[in-house]
Write a structure and sequence with these properties.
Blueprint lengths: L1 H23 L20 E3 L1 H10 L5 H5 L4 E7 L4 E6 L7 E5 L22 E8 L3 H4 L6 E7 L7 E9 L3 E11 L4 E12 L14 E14 L5 E16 L13 E18 L4 E18 L2 E20 L2 E16 L7 E17 L2 E12 L3 E12 L4 E12 L6 H6 L13 E14 L2 E13 L2 E7 L2 E6 L3 E15 L2 E15 L6 E3 L6 E11 L3 E10 L16 E12 L2 E8 L35 E11 L5
Length: 642
């Protein structure tokens, strides 16, 4: 018995050592402190390359599934006709989430709902998720949180990957990634992809339940490391996509007329991140980017041509002061929108800001962090955004507490308007900036291969922008007359034993807001009170992986739905298998095995058109049903080691 006990103890110690070794290498970029994920005072969920590899086999064309399986993060479909989605953090609206690429706003100051579907995961090294206001570091667009997509760095040897994927719904993906060192201090990478999908009318009503699209992407990157410790990262990107939904050819909406919805997108972006030491303890950092995005929307017989522009520059100084890290900097961001047809909604926001951060260990196992930012918005005035966080690490426990405050500059593009266009929206008049305070308490425990985490979170939003109906064919944006409140909890449990990993999570959200039409309080629509997930995965490097997953989504209050006022709960099941045969990897993945579809319960198309112009109800369940995809992945050179 004593021998068995010692053996079990040795195995547990080995598991714990492996877990610690894994987290030591994870340096978080989004917080700018240069600390490991376990030493950050702010809770950061890091999606590592191993998990990214899994999601590449499931959805190689976009990152929606990658971020959706993070507890407290919900990918919400905003337009069933075009499949557009945004990211809700802990019950807060999707427009409050800032999407970054290597810390840069390459997808715009307010990423469009289609933007999430246009980011391929092929060349991602890790994904960092911070929930709650991060306006203290990233300004107005980070009121609800930040998702930072960090690119893969080239290794010491050249590598090449290619993936071909086919789906049972008429989808095809072809992606390629190449990276090579170009000398001792220079690395290059190139990522490209082609993605397409057939339109699918699964319930035979003449309206596409899955939009059709065709997309091309290309992104070269340059990585330079100087002999003095300086670094330079340069990225360029180009993307073009044609997306079509609405009525199919020869079919009509309930009013007897065809109603095609389409979105053609062209995006160009460029960015750089540089740093150079100016003393033994002080480093100068530079970030800059520019994004230009042209859209052509079609909503039936209405066409909207517009352009979105974002330019960004930032200079900061980072230093070390007796074990504490500090940061101070200045930033300037411009966000512009220009419409050919609806020029009254044009805007050009210029926002200069100054910010600072101080983080350090003030006592044994106790780290405190504070950050603050002062922004001068050209339209909405001056705002102060603070954030304070604390980390206490007694033994195997980690206890974090955080509070932050920020603001958001209103634009016309709330979910309903993005889905329906500007033609029925009255001119913006008298809107105030949205402001929010967010708080969280996070308790974690890790021993051996077991990890547990409990998070309590809350947010209060003042002046939240809502859509109010003012006529049968007219809507207006107004500030809510009261506070939008969210309270909730996340629970995550994970156990790892050699090649096996089992992860479970449960999220409870209670969100309420003033009703924009009646003024009474209501539950925030399409916000499930309860969600849960269970994932089991076996993975052996050089052999393959097998995984199963189950996700539960509880009831949701619905808004302006003629079929029901509350949704049905549902369960989605999935399974993944991959086999490694040297440089060749074969995979097959099944999503939504139970074939859950919203149109199994009610029609997706409304009997009459909504005042904001939409023909469809809000999406509260999957619309694509069961989907099977499979493919082949080829890996050469350094990529063979992944």
């Amino acid at each position: 018995m004593l021998g068995l006990t010692a053996l079990a103890g040795t195995a547990a110690q080995a598991q714990e050592a492996r877990a610690e070794e894994e987290t030591l290498d994870i340096i978080v970029q989004a917080t700018r402190s240069g600390r490991g994920v376990d030493d950050e005072a702010i809770r950061v969920d890091v999606i590592e390359r191993e998990e990214i590899e899994e999601k590449i086999l499931m959805t190689p064309g976009n990152v929606s599934m990658l971020v959706a399986e993070t507890p407290g993060v919900r990918v919400q479909v905003t337009s069933p006709s075009l499949g557009s989605s945004n990211v809700r953090m802990q019950g807060m609206d999707g427009r409050y989430t800032q999407l970054l690429a290597d810390g840069l706003p390459l997808y715009g100051g307010q990423a469009s709902s289609a933007g999430l579907l246009q980011i391929p995961p092929t060349d991602l090294g890790q994904v960092e998720v911070i929930k709650g206001s991060v306006s203290a570091l990233y300004g107005a667009s980070a009121l609800g949180g930040v998702i930072n997509f960090v690119s893969r760095r080239p290794g010491d040897a050249s590598e090449l990957e290619a993936l071909l994927n086919l789906t049972s719904r008429g989808g095809q993906d072809l992606t390629a990634y190449a990276a090579t060192p170009a000398g001792e201090s220079v690395g290059l990478s190139l990522t490209g992809g082609f993605h397409r999908q057939d339109e699918n009318d699964l319930d035979g009503d003449g309206w596409a339940d899955m939009p059709g699209y065709q997309r091309w992407t290309i992104r070269p990157r340059l990585f330079v490391e100087g002999a003095n410790g300086g670094k330079l990262f340069v990225t360029l990107g180009a993307m073009t996509e044609d997306r079509t939904g609405g009525t199919l050819a020869g079919r009509t909406a309930p009013d007897g007329q065809p109603f095609v919805e389409a979105l053609d997108t062209t995006r160009l972006d460029a960015g750089l991140v540089g740093e150079t030491p100016i003393s033994d303890t002080v480093t100068l950092h530079l970030r800059a980017s520019a994004m230009l995005q042209d859209h052509r929307h079609q909503f039936g017989d209405v066409v909207e041509d517009d352009r979105h522009e974002t330019s960004f520059g930032e200079v900061s100084v980072v230093g070390d002061l007796g074990g504490a890290s500090w940061l101070a900097g200045v930033a300037l961001q411009h966000d512009g929108y220009h419409s050919k047809q609806f020029a009254s909604f044009d805007y050009d926001y210029v926002v200069p800001g100054i910010f600072g951060q101080l983080e350090g260990e003030v006592a044994e196992n106790l780290t405190l962090a504070g950050s603050a930012r002062l922004d001068r918005h050209s339209e909405y005035g001056t705002y102060f955004s603070p954030r304070v966080s604390a980390l206490y690490k007694p033994g195997p426990w980690t206890i974090r507490a955080s509070w932050g405050r920020g603001f958001y500059a209103p634009t016309p593009f709330v979910e309903q308007i993005e889905a329906a266009g500007l033609s029925r929206l009255e001119p913006l008049d008298g809107l105030k900036a949205e402001q929010a305070g967010t708080a969280s308490l996070d308790i974690g425990y890790r021993a051996g291969g077991f990890t547990a985490n409990l998070t309590l979170f809350a947010s209060d939003i003042e002046n939240a922008v809502q859509v109010r109906t003012v006529g049968p064919q007219s809507v207006r944006l107004v500030n809510a007359d009261g506070t939008t409140r969210t309270r909730g909890a996340e629970v995550m449990l994970r156990y790892r034993w050699d090649a096996f990993t089992v992860t479970g999570n449960y999220v409870r959200v209670n969100a309420s807001e003033p009703d924009p039409d009646s003024g009474n309080r209501r539950t925030v629509p399409r916000t499930p009170r309860d969600t849960a997930g269970l994932v089991a995965m076996w993975e052996e490097h050089g052999q393959g992986r097998i995984g199963i997953e189950a996700y539960y989504t509880g009831k949701q209050e619905l808004e302006d739905n003629p079929w029901r006022s509350r949704s049905k709960p549902y369960v989605e099941l999935g399974a993944l298998a991959e086999v490694v045969l040297g440089r060749v990897r074969l995979f097959i993945n099944a999503e939504n095995i139970l074939n859950v579809r919203q149109t199994n319960y009610d029609p997706l198309v409304r009997p009459t058109r909504a005042p904001d112009g939409r023909w469809t109800v809000d999406v509260w369940a999957p619309t694509e049903g069961f989907v099977l995809n499979s493919g082949i992945r080829l890996m050469f050179g350094g990529g063979e080691q992944h």
